[in-house]
Write a structure and sequence with these properties.
The protein has 277 residues and is α+β, with helices and mostly antiparallel strands. The chain has helices at 21-43, 46-51, 80-93, 158-170, 174-179, 208-218, and strands at 53-62, 70-73, 97-107, 110-119, 126-136, 139-150, 181-189, 200-201, 226-235, 238-246, 252-262, 265-276. The two termini are 18 Å apart.
Length: 277
């Protein structure tokens, strides 16, 4: 697993049995972009921060609606024009915070990041954030702030719940698989919108009876594919994982999955990225 834990730094170590050299370079590149943003914000370097974003990039705030990953565009960083105003104030203010990248999950052109920030000089009070960035051509194309939390960012057992969910899939156990969903769970597919993130509702998978019908049929001959969790992180009630799924045909598919887990059950299942390897 890739688990960068160094303040404002990115680990370039890659297990060769998991990742090709080209894929390792891609992952390292995305992590560098996020690391540069953290450094620019911490140092109050407005020009460096602005240069990291594409002019048409949109930055979204945390959603107030549980069914949606994307909240409204940020009032300070949402558009290029707003970012220009923000970075001027940032440069004038100067360094006033410390930022530390805790964990990352990289799939395709998406990188999920948990970050700890604290205001100088008091380093005892900290905030934690979970964000997903889309990085293209070396710049941030979009950014979604998914969750915020104060204090320690323990996962509260929700990562264990997702590992058990994946195990049920790999064992071909339809009943155990279904048991991990809340009765009113909603399932979403990758977005077709230019600035969207997993906002296509799967109507049938989001209804209790039709979900059971679909899963029972899919698992009729065993597991539909063997899933390996390559990397995983959590904040609040959200879990983000990179799953590598090997289909019965031998084809390998990489996914970024985002789950909301409450009281041990999956209430929301978002597929943010899904591509053949």
């Amino acid at each position: 697993m890739l688990k960068p834990m160094r303040p404002l730094a990115v680990s370039a170590l890659v297990a060769v049995n998991f990742l090709s050299f080209e894929l390792a370079q891609q992952i390292n590149g995305l992590e560098q972009i996020v690391s540069k943003e953290a450094i620019a914000l911490a140092e109050g370097n407005g020009s460096a921060l602005l240069a990291l974003f594409s002019p048409d990039a949109v930055v979204f705030e945390v959603s107030e609606t549980p069914d949606r990953l994307a909240g409204p565009p940020s009032a300070t960083m949402g558009t290029h024009e707003q970012r220009q105003v923000f970075v001027q104030a940032l440069s004038a203010r100067g360094p006033r915070s410390r930022r530390e990248i805790l964990e990352t999950v990289v799939v395709g052109d998406l990188i999920a990041v948990t970050m700890r920030s604290s205001a100088a000089p008091d380093d005892t009070k900290s905030d934690h954030t979970l964000s997903v960035y889309r990085v293209r051509d070396g710049r941030v194309g979009d950014c979604w702030r998914l969750a915020e939390a104060q204090g320690p960012s323990g996962d509260g057992g929700i990562i264990t719940a997702i590992r058990q969910f994946v195990d049920a899939n790999n064992q071909g156990d339809a009943e155990a698989f279904l048991a991990h969903f809340s009765p009113d769970a909603k399932v979403f597919r990758p977005s077709d919108a230019a600035h969207g993130l997993a906002d296509k509702l799967s109507e049938r998978m989001s209804q209790l009876e039709s979900r059971r019908t679909i899963i029972t049929a899919v698992f009729a001959k065993g597991s539909p594919g063997q899933a390996q969790i390559v990397d995983i992180l959590a904040l609040g009630d959200l879990v983000v994982s990179h799953d590598r799924v090997t289909l019965p045909s031998g084809q390998v598919v990489n996914q970024m999955k985002i789950y909301r887990v409450r009281r041990g059950l999956i209430t929301h299942d978002w597929t943010a990225y899904e591509r053949p390897q």
